[in-house]
Design brief:
The chain is of the alpha/beta class. The protein folds into two domains: 3-119, Response regulator (Rossmann fold); 137-237, Orthogonal Bundle (Arc Repressor Mutant, subunit A). It has eight helices and twelve strands. The strands form three sheets. Strands 2-1-3-4-5 form a five-stranded parallel β-sheet, with helices on both faces. The protein has a four-stranded antiparallel β-sheet with strand order 6-7-8-9, covered by helices on one side. α3 links the parallel β3 (49-53) and β4 (77-81). The chain is globular, with a radius of gyration of 18 Å.
């Protein structure tokens, strides 16, 4: 049973997420203050993943994450927030978080993110797409480190979420090949899961992911054009 810590000062939200996690088989520890969470880590470190609110009185989420990393606590962290500006997402990832989830998203989305992160080394587990090979990968100006989930373009880190990293890794390791929307979507969600309107509503989700990925690369390199669209089919990573 995986152990998840929730740190959020919104009592109703915290209790709702905690109950949903318990109902899905997780062991849950919840705190309303970052200071209490850190005291728990100092007393007993059995946590597998932390769900961390961004805005809290006293220690903010960023403060908690910084303290965790400074003291050698490398537990994966997903940030909760109502702040949807990309600058906050980049700040969270730069600080060492592995993902960033807006509070308005459904619990189902959060659960899938948690399952993918916890899957980690458990590649091939039923219902979860295998994690990328742990070997570092390089192609032109791109460097990928699957072990840490970090991507670099021309030597600069690209602040990708775990799902975005999986898509980039899937495309880049198949450079020059046309990859279907469905195959890209399955890198982020369970195989066979349908989303959006209609049987192929997942295409909208994939386009959104690709748009965000392109924006992050272009913030470092305005001329970035490695991800090409194959209209009606999917995308490819240019091998030029």
């Amino acid at each position: 049973m995986a152990s998840i810590m929730i740190v959020d000062d919104d009592d109703l939200f915290r209790e709702s997420v905690a109950q949903n996690l318990v109902d899905n088989g997780f062991e849950v520890t919840a705190f309303s203050r970052g200071e209490d969470a850190m005291a728990h880590f100092e007393a007993e470190d059995r946590t597998d993943l932390v769900l961390l609110d961004w805005k809290m009185p006293g220690m903010t989420g960023i403060d908690v994450l910084a303290r965790m990393r400074d003291t050698g606590i490398q537990v994966p962290v997903i940030f909760f927030t109502v702040l949807n500006d990309q600058i906050y997402e980049e700040a969270a990832l730069t600080s060492g978080a592995v993902d960033f989830v807006e509070k308005s998203r459904s619990f189902h989305i959060l659960l899938r993110r948690i399952e993918l992160i916890l899957a980690g080394a458990k590649s091939g587990e039923a219902g979860v797409e295998p994690a990328p090979s742990a070997e570092e990968f390089a192609l032109g100006d791109l460097e990928l480190n699957p072990e840490t989930g970090r991507a670099y373009w021309k030597g600069k880190e690209v602040g990708l979420t775990l799902g975005e990293f999986r898509i980039v890794h899937f495309l880049a390791t198949r450079a020059g090949q046309d990859i279907r929307y469905r195959d890209l979507y399955d890198q982020v969600h369970d195989t066979g899961f349908f989303a959006g309107t209609g049987a192929e509503g997942y295409r909208v989700n994939v386009r959104t992911f690709i748009k965000r990925i392109r924006q992050k690369f272009r913030s470092l390199d305005p001329k970035f054009a490695a991800i090409e669209n194959y209209p009606g089919f999917g995308y490819r990573w240019s091998n030029e």
